[in-house]
Write a structure and sequence with these properties.
Layout lengths: L2 E6 L4 H6 L3 E6 L1 E2 L13 E3 L3 E9 L5 E5 L20 E11 L5 E10 L2
């Protein structure tokens, strides 16, 4: 699968001394077909404790199909917990999070391709 990596850097030299690096990996495709590989989509965040987290996934019409405040919870390709998206489908994601010791929010947005 293709993937996209995003790395958030501290805002200043003072913050660089006090905060560990924040590494964020956000896949841009997955295949929820119950074969045991890439069946769930979720960002991988490493380096800091997450204080607040809000992930929203929207369809092409802008309707919400998935939302979570748990960074460990992944999306299985279902639409609001019901039926599954047809393939290929493109969805938009929006992540707003804050890490421990950092007063600023990190915002990530992009696209996810569902391949079956």
């Amino acid at each position: 699968m293709f993937s996209a990596a995003v790395f958030a850097q501290p805002k200043s030299d003072a913050e660089a001394d006090s905060l560990p690096a924040l590494n964020v990996f956000i896949p841009n495709a997955f295949s929820p077909n119950a074969d045991g590989f890439n069946d769930f989509w979720r960002p991988v965040i490493d380096g800091r404790n997450i204080e607040t987290y809000d992930l929203v996934i929207l369809n092409r019409n802008g309707s919400e199909v998935f939302r979570t405040e748990d960074p460990r919870e992944g999306w299985n390709g279902s639409v609001r917990g019901g039926g599954f998206a047809t393939s290929p489908s493109v969805f938009m994601y929006y992540i707003n999070m804050r890490t421990e010791g950092d007063p600023e929010n990190y915002v990530y947005k992009g696209h996810i391709t569902v391949v079956r």
